[in-house]
Specification:
The protein is of the alpha+beta class. It is built from 6 helices and 14 strands. Helices cover 25% and strands 24% of the residues. Among the domains are: 82 residues, no CATH class; 71 residues, no CATH class. Strand 11, helix 4 and strand 12 form a beta-alpha-beta unit. The strands form 3 sheets. It has a 6-stranded antiparallel sheet with strand order 3-6-5-4-7-8, with no helix packed on it. A 4-stranded antiparallel sheet has the order 1-14-9-10. Helix 5 packs antiparallel against helix 6.
C-alpha cells in the first residue's frame, strides 16, 4: 500500500482548540469558547518560556556599540526620522515636546537611528535635538518596542572587532549577576567590553563592562531567546515545530480543563507533564564528547 508521500500536517489554532475540547469531553459551541481557548493557548506559551521550552525561537543578533554608551536594548530599537546625517553616534537626543531622551548607538540609514531605551516617551512629529551636534530633525512615527520586549534572555555573547576584514576576531564575554555588576567600582572605564549583565525589565536591557572605547568598531554578537508568536487569528498556524504538537495539544487540554472540565483535570495534567518531559528532553543541544584520560593515574611497569 502506498504512503501519502506528504509531510505537511500542520493544524491551525482552531483544530488544536477542537482537539483540546474533545479531550475534555466537550464541544466548541460559542464564540466565547474560542476566545477562552485562544487566551489559554497564549498563557501556555508564556509557561513554556518560563520553562525554557522554546529553543526554536533562538535568534543571533548583532548590535553596533558606541563609544561611551554602556546600556543597550536587548533587540532592535530604532526611530524613523526626517534625516540622520547631521547627528553624531553616541550623543544624546532630546524630544522638543516630550522632553524624552535617548542616546544614538548607530545610524542604519539616512532616515533612522538605533537608540538606547528612552527615558520618557517620544511623541510622533516632535522635533529632536542632538546634545552634541545641536542638529535637529523630526520624529516620523512613534518608537516601537515590540522587538525588544519580545526578548526573554541572552544565551551567549561575544564582541567582534575588525568586522568584515581578514583580521576579524570574536571574543567571548562573560555574564555576571546583578550583584556582581553592582559591585564593579569603575563602571565608566572605557575599554573593550569583557562582561555583561542582562537587566530583565519589561523592556530588557544589556549592560556592558567595560564601557566601549574608541579604539575599535565593536559589534556585540549575541544569541537571544525570544517569545513564541502569539495565537491571534484562529486560522493562524502556531509557532511551534512538528515535534511539539503533542505537548501543545495536551497543555491546551489541561488549561481548558481547569475552567470547563475539573473532573478530568488531574488526568490531563499528568498527560501534559508527560508530554512536556518528552519534549524538553528532546529540545536540547547535542555535541560530540571527547574524553582524555589523565596520565596521573597510569601505572608504569618496568
Amino acid at each position: 500500500m502506498a504512503t501519502s508521500d506528504s509531510k505537511d500536517f500542520s493544524p491551525d489554532i482552531a483544530e488544536y482548540v477542537e482537539e483540546a475540547f474533545e479531550r475534555c469531553g466537550l464541544e466548541v459551541r460559542t464564540g466565547y469558547d474560542l476566545r477562552s481557548a485562544r487566551r489559554s493557548l497564549n498563557l501556555l506559551f508564556a509557561d513554556w518560556a518560563n520553562r525554557g521550552l522554546n529553543r526554536w525561537t533562538i535568534q543571533q543578533k548583532t548590535l553596533s556599540l558606541a563609544q561611551g554608551v554602556s546600556v543597550y536594548p536587548l533587540g532592535d530599537l530604532t526611530m524613523t526620522v526626517g534625516g540622520s546625517g547631521s547627528f553624531t553616534v553616541g550623543e544624546t537626543i532630546t524630544g522638543g515636546t516630550s522632553g524624552a531622551t535617548a542616546s544614538i548607538t548607530s545610524a542604519p540609514s539616512s532616515t533612522s537611528f538605533a537608540i538606547t531605551v528612552p527615558s520618557g516617551t517620544f511623541t510622533a512629529s516632535e522635533t529632536l535635538t542632538g546634545g552634541t551636534s545641536a542638529a535637529t530633525t523630526t520624529l516620523s512615527s512613534a518608537v516601537s518596542f515590540e522587538d525588544t520586549q519580545a526578548s526573554i534572555d541572552i544565551l551567549s555573547a561575544a564582541v567582534r572587532q575588525n568586522s568584515g576584514t581578514s583580521t576579524q576576531t570574536d571574543t567571548s564575554i562573560s555574564r555576571v549577576s546583578r550583584d556582581d555588576f553592582l559591585s564593579i567600582p569603575s563602571k565608566r572605564t572605557q575599554a573593550r567590553p569583557t562582561q555583561y549583565y542582562v537587566d530583565r525589565q519589561v523592556t530588557p536591557r544589556v549592560r556592558l563592562w567595560s564601557t566601549p572605547d574608541s579604539s575599535s568598531d565593536y559589534i556585540l554578537i549575541y544569541d537571544r531567546l525570544t517569545r513564541i508568536d502569539d495565537a491571534d487569528a484562529l486560522t493562524n498556524t502556531p509557532d511551534v515545530p512538528f515535534r511539539f504538537y503533542p505537548c501543545l495539544t495536551a497543555g491546551l487540554a489541561y488549561y481548558l480543563a481547569l475552567k470547563k472540565a475539573p473532573q478530568r483535570m488531574q488526568m490531563l495534567k499528568a498527560m501534559y507533564e508527560e508530554e512536556f518531559e518528552r519534549a524538553a528532553a528532546e529540545d536540547r543541544d547535542r555535541s560530540s564528547l571527547s574524553l582524555t584520560p589523565s596520565r596521573d593515574y597510569y601505572t608504569f611497569i618496568s
